[in-house]
Amino acid sequence: MKVAIAVLFFTVFCVSTVASFYHDKQVMCYFRNWSQYGRKHAKFLPENVDARLCDVLKYAFLRVNMDTFMIETTQPNDAEMLAKFAALKAANPYFKIVVAVGGWSHEYLPRFSTMSSTAANRQIFIQSAIAFLKKHNLDGLSYSWIYPGTRGHGTPEEEKKKFTLLVKDTREAFEKASNNGTEQRYYLSAAVTPYPRQIEKSYETESIAKYVDTVDVITNSLWTHRKKKTGSATAMKSSPKTIISSVEAWISSGMPAHKINIGFSLYGHTYTLADVNDAVLGAKTVGAGAASKLTRTKGVLAYYEICSRAWKQETAWYRSKTKTAYASDDMGVWVSFDDPKSLSYKLYYLLLKHKLNGVTLWSLDFDDFTGNFCNAGKYPFLRQVACTIEAVESRLPPATCRVPVNVGFLLDSSLHAGWNYPKLKKFVKIMAASFGISAFGTKASVATFSTEAENAITFDDNFDSYSFNAQVDAIPLMGTKKRRMDTALQLANKDMFTADNGAEFGAPNVLVLLTVGSQHKGEGDPAAMAKQLRASGVHLVVVGVGRHVDRNELEIIAGDTQDVFIAPTYGQLLGKDFVSSVSERLCPQVR
């Protein structure tokens, strides 16, 4: 006899995350200490920062004093600003503040090069940095040496050796300052080149990987106006330099993927077209775009300026060969930029494909932090990044069931699901992933129900967990008030495990029925439909979430108390222990 498994889920309101499942990805946010001088809406201060949206704030920039080799501030009120940032830890105890030392203009004088040239000089700097971190209640240090061996202060071989010794000595001093691990060690990171040939020239990658916690691969300027033709600064494909090639070069050079943060900018690169009517990728240009009234920098437009400007021509990121949007106006300004959706696409792929540590954003003041420009609320970029990180973290548990099955889900899509609908779909994705969906193994199908029931995804619509997840994300909410579990179970009986629906003949059938409450009174008998499923070999597992579920009803539908799982909150629904219990019960091999 075929074995089929059905699972019924009941859910309620609750806000939670699934960080208990996976390694938490990090969001690094740069704060430019000169953004406080912005005009009008461009003025950015510590009070504009939402500490809930960043894991680590990188305060840019401090510098090396050329005479004393000690760390020093660059703005007269840096101490005051850092105190305001430190106060944000009260709202988010996990919020970390790291000072970034360096930057492009830092090496106009050989500050890093001279300081790192001897062990004594390095120790002067490092001990002064530790004292600074302690004094200001900070959490770490990030080196922004742009880039060793490229600024004419020494040979590449000399400079990259200096950098290795600098990070080595810094890490060892941080270890000692933590009482050899009995206290929290200071965080150590570095901003590094995105260019494959430059990696070999500037870094002893395998050596520095031993000492840094993370590196920020700054991929936000892979193409600029210096190329004299338009191009994408953050191309994913169809360009000589891509984000993907940068990441792969770092990994192949010896930097562990889990130590890499991929760096994106929240601004667009602008160009001046040679011909305003020739605005395609690769069009000739005559320089950087003119400075705007707010950003006041040639070649740069903040995202909030881009989203609020009228453009003559616009190409969405998904229609661009490089997967980066671009636009132009009547004055010949051409801009290449990411928007929240394109950044989400790139970040989702890179974090999943390469298992990176997280993302670094340059910088907070380029997002629409006031919410006055893009009609998308405050921080549209950061909020989209947060959603993407959550999706990545909660996406796929390891496949625990090795028996190929047809796994079906009946998803409650009634009005009561409402705001929690994404969490219901997240649970569906996690449960499906525990079976390891593949073209020649487990297949998955989804039907939704409210007053009526309808097929949303057939078994042959997807070929792996990635394609299945993408389709689940696209399922709309039906949104009627009534909840008819009987219609969902009737559909499962009639259509779900058929050849027309793509079911694999002879494989055990696994059905997941998901709902957010009880059957609408007087509207049918879900228990009778469930009995037919069980009689045909379907193993029905019922999962309820929240205060609106009726345990007695669930047990009758399931037919076995061991096949009923109730989670009081979404946090428990998406927690590791709860999911493991349900997936173990579902797997024919385990049973």
Structure at a glance:
30% of the residues lie in helices and 21% in strands.
Gross CATH architecture of the largest domain: Alpha-Beta Barrel
- Give the termini separation: 15 Å
Sheet/helix structural class: alpha/beta
Main beta-sheet annotation: 8 strands, parallel, barrel
Number of helices: 17
- Taken together, the total number of domains comes to 2
Task: Give the CATH H-level superfamily of the largest domain.
Answer: Glycosidases
Which blocks of ≥5 consecutive residues have pLDDT under 50? 1-23
In round numbers, the mean pLDDT is 90
As a percent range, the share of helical residues equals 25-40%
Using only C-alpha atoms, the radius of gyration works out to 27 Å
Overall outline: elongated
What does it look like?
This protein is an alpha/beta fold and 591 residues long. It folds into two domains: 4-17 and 397-586, Rossmann fold; 26-393, TIM Barrel. Helix content is 30%, strand content 21%. The chain is built from 17 helices and 22 strands. It has helices at residues 78-87, 111-115, 119-135, 156-177, 196-202, 205-208, 243-253, 303-307, 340-354, 380-393, 421-433, 465-473, 485-496, 526-535, 551-558, 570-573, 576-586; strands spanning 4-10, 26-32, 56-64, 71-72, 96-102, 140-144, 187-192, 214-218, 260-265, 267-273, 285-288, 300-302, 313-315, 325-328, 333-337, 358-362, 406-412, 443-449, 453-457, 509-514, 538-545, 564-567. An eight-stranded parallel β-barrel has the order 2-3-5-6-7-8-9-16, surrounded by six helices. A seven-stranded mixed beta sheet has the order 19-18-17-20-1-21-22, sandwiched between helices. Strands 10, 11, 12, 13, 14 and 15 form a six-stranded antiparallel beta sheet that branches. Helix 14 runs parallel beside helix 15 (551-558). The longest helix is centred in the first third of the chain and has 22 residues, at 156-177.
